[in-house]
Amino acid sequence: MAKFEVTNISSTEDSFFDRQERIDWWEQDKLKNATVLVVGAGAIGNETLKNLALLGVGNILITDFDDISKSNLSRTVLFRKGDQGKRKAQTAAERIKDMALSDDFKVNYFEGDVVWELGTGVYRHVDIVLGCLDNIETRIAVNKQCYLAGTPWIDAGIYELGLRINFYKPPHAPCYQCSLSPNQWQAARERYSCDDFKKQVTSEGKIPTVQIASALVGALQVQEAVKFLCGQEVPIGKQIYYQGKTNDFDVFDMPDNPDCWAHQASYDEIISLNLDTDILLKDFLKEVSKAENSGEGATLDFRGDRTFVKTMSCRDCQKEIEFYRPSFRIFDYESHCEECRSEGENNTENQTPAPKQTIGQFNLEKLKVNDERLLNFTLKELGIPILHVVAVQDTEGKYKYYELTGDKKKLF
């Protein structure tokens, strides 16, 4: 047996991160300075957040709109019995704040619907997005925003003892949408009525799984994120797959759909404005109508990104119902007037969209004549998400894109 001699002993306990920094390609400063958006604070999100905090990632933003349920507690390392009913994002933020080892660690959280209330600008101000999700609709939304912002993201998924992760790097293909089947697209619409209103009651499918799968996928997801942040190559268009029941491990090539619109959309230029979503529409339009911006006559244009509903005909009696709300803030039962609802004459089986009056373009002079009331709405009330990139058209039909950078201080 070969003999060896210890010639020098030095302290290895001066740094919290000593062992990982011994990896030759590891760059702890890059992790410390990185900003990571974690979408979802459930089972996968808990494991992912725990790993990020212990590895010394310096800036984390957590998004989730849900409460902690009893069934979450067996699968979430950050939550305790007494947390039932508390908000997931806030509680997770508090726990990793206590767990983090760096004195200047920063964590913030956002409680809202990621699909509709988290703007493109949020994705522009992070280095990578980690998707810890359990539904297709939100994955589609995250994929879209990441490709618009040019920000990489890693999607993680679990089922029983199985798991998979995918790394997407805009503008490269494939993207998440490339391989979606018609049934998956249909599943993405499950929480909406034919009027594009939110269903009051939806049949929520619960995924059979255990904490073991969450721990494994969270570890692999953060491993790939760390490699990327430290400048290592992470293969694009691959899926890492593991089935725990049979211990099968594989890496698959993902299909590229050349006609997929998600990775073809982009902005030519984004202009930062020190404005936020609390600004009144009239003041926003005055600002973008300045000569140095889009000029006199500028129009805020939703470009099909969302729908603002002014009125709609009652499904039963055709009486006009006033909304003045974005469609994602309207519930399906509201498509029947209060009188018909009280009489129980609301036919929820009717799948034909009812006539409604919507608005997708907002011009200062036109609204003064046609609907001055809207000018005193905030951008948030119109349905524009926090730190969003909005499209503004000038009188010649040319578009400029403005980020509502004034919202940044609310999240970072």
Automatic annotation (TrEMBL):
Pfam families referenced in this protein's UniProt entry, alphabetically: ThiF (PF00899)
GO cellular component, as recorded: cytoplasm
GO biological process, one term: protein modification by small protein conjugation
An annotated Gene Ontology molecular function: nucleotidyltransferase activity
All copies of domain THIF-type NAD/FAD binding fold, residue ranges: 27-261
Protein name: Dinucleotide-utilizing enzyme possibly involved in molybdopterin or thiamin biosynthesis
Organism of derivation: Bernardetia litoralis (strain ATCC 23117 / DSM 6794 / NBRC 15988 / NCIMB 1366 / Fx l1 / Sio-4)
